[in-house]
Amino acid sequence: VMLSIKDYLRKNDPVMTMIFDEIDVGISGDTAFKVAELMKNISKYKQIITITHLPQIAAKADNHILVSKENKNIVVKELNENERVEEIARLLGSSESYETALKHAKALLKK
């Protein structure tokens, strides 16, 4: 509901950056695609920083930053196009059929 309100007010809201921390909790499938589209529309007027575990939402981003933990260190890395494909494939969770996941990830990024 809040995302819809933010979309409605986006042109008049003075806040230029919005942060969404796992706004995708409890959604999947077509609903995730709808949320991703709504966020993409808002991003035409605002900067959006999103923490997500859904490939549908990650694929709509203009930039993709991966935050991970290696040993006791936090690593923050901006991904290039190939790394984005690999990360979205990983989010799809298809270790059994990695080639299929890569194809699906590429298709999501083209949408």
Automatic annotation (TrEMBL):
InterPro entries: DNA_recomb/repair_RecN (IPR004604), P-loop_NTPase (IPR027417). GO terms for cellular component: bacterial nucleoid. Keywords: ATP-binding, DNA damage, DNA repair, Nucleotide-binding. It comes from the Bacteria. SUPFAM superfamilies: P-loop containing nucleoside triphosphate hydrolases. The keyword Cell inner membrane does not apply. One of its GO terms (molecular function) is ATP binding. One of its GO terms (biological process) is DNA repair. Signal peptide: none annotated. Belongs to the RecN family. This is DNA repair protein RecN. It comes from candidate division WOR-3 bacterium.
